Amino acid sequence: MQRVLDPAQIEAFAQQQIPRVRLPDAPSVFAVRAGRLLALAKDHPLAGYLELMALLCEAQQRALGTRAGQALPEPLLLEASRAVRHGMPPLPAMGLNRSPLWREILTELCAALEGAPNFPAQVGSTLARLAAAPPSQLEQQADALLSGAGSGVDAPCAPLVMAALQVYWTLRVLQLPVEQLAQLPQVSLVCPLCGSLPVASVVQSGSQGVGKDQHGLRYMSCGLCASEWHLVRVKCSHCESTAGIHYQSIEGGPKGIRAEVCGQCHTYRKIFYREDEPAAEAVADDLASIALDLLVAEAGFHRASGNPLLWQPLNV
């Protein structure tokens, strides 16, 4: 006799059979994003901004590379271990005892942009403002961005501050010991490593080197630490509802880019299909598809979370 499973049982079974969490690839995580941004910039209305963010991502990769292989500092190791024991993300965006390292990374990123051959002159004032800001002000900006606060954010500076925080958290995630990775909390709406919201999701294709076991699976992409985690498809990534889910896309636009819209909480996140868009990268493709955001916003829906490379006050 055939056994019929309810949706909860199917999801639990699936989680046991597939990789639940995928860590960022240290040698290429930001380099891949930079390359995708450059590819998307061709003939794009926002080409200048996408190219600037590509330069920033290249600088992020260099900053990460110079620090790869380091061990997690003992105080953070103890914090992470304590968090895991209590079923919490080991490196929470809110509450982690950040070291001044992230501000050092910010200085490097600003210097890289200022020294770039195609550096836009209008960004100079933003870099100067960051250079003149005292540590306490930078820490306040970091807190505001990580908490998703709608006020107190210096919008032009936000992508740079967030870029430094991305490198910092990605580095820390890659430093976690294997035994802690094996004990990550069972969460689906936030990153199991840092507790941040996803920026978008990507449906995998077996032809892109992920293996047949992951073909067609949807992974949420963390906008902070670049980790990915599995979430079943046709399920709201904001409220977990499976009712009223529908998809919107731009008529005549790329087949592999849609907005997954929830009729229950009236929010959406984009979902990218690598079968149609083989090179899709969540942060880059989300940033380059602002036209889809405008379309969905006109229909009365709101973004569930923003893009780390573009400050967007959310109304959810």
Structural overview:
This protein is α+β, with helices and mostly antiparallel strands and 316 residues long. It has a domain at 25-181: FdhE-like domain (FdhE-like fold), CATH 3.90.1670.10. The protein has helices at residues 7-17, 29-41, 47-65, 74-85, 101-114, 124-132, 135-147, 158-175, 178-181, 282-288, 290-298, and strands at 21-22, 198-203, 218-222, 228-230, 245-248, 257-262, 267-273, 302-303. Strands 1, 2, 3, 4, 5, 6, 7 and 8 form an 8-stranded mixed sheet that branches. Strand 6 (257-262) and strand 7 form a beta hairpin. It is globular and about 45 Å long. Residues 1-7 have low confidence and may be disordered.
Shape: globular
Tally of DSSP β-strands: 8
Structural class: alpha+beta
User: What percent of the residues sit in helical stretches (DSSP H or I)?
Assistant: 40-55%
CATH topology of the domain at 25-181: FdhE-like fold
Secondary-structure element pattern, one letter each: HEHHHHHHHHEEEEEEHHE
For the sheet with most strands, the description reads:
8 strands, mixed
What is the tally of helical segments?
11
How much is the radius of gyration in Å?
19 Å
The mean pLDDT is: 90
% residues in beta strands: 5-15%
Please mark out the parts with pLDDT under 50 across 5 or more consecutive residues, or reply none: 1-7
The CATH C-level class name of the domain at 25-181: Alpha Beta
CATH architecture of the domain at 25-181: Alpha-Beta Complex
Distance between the termini: 47 Å
CATH H-level superfamily of the domain at 25-181: FdhE-like domain
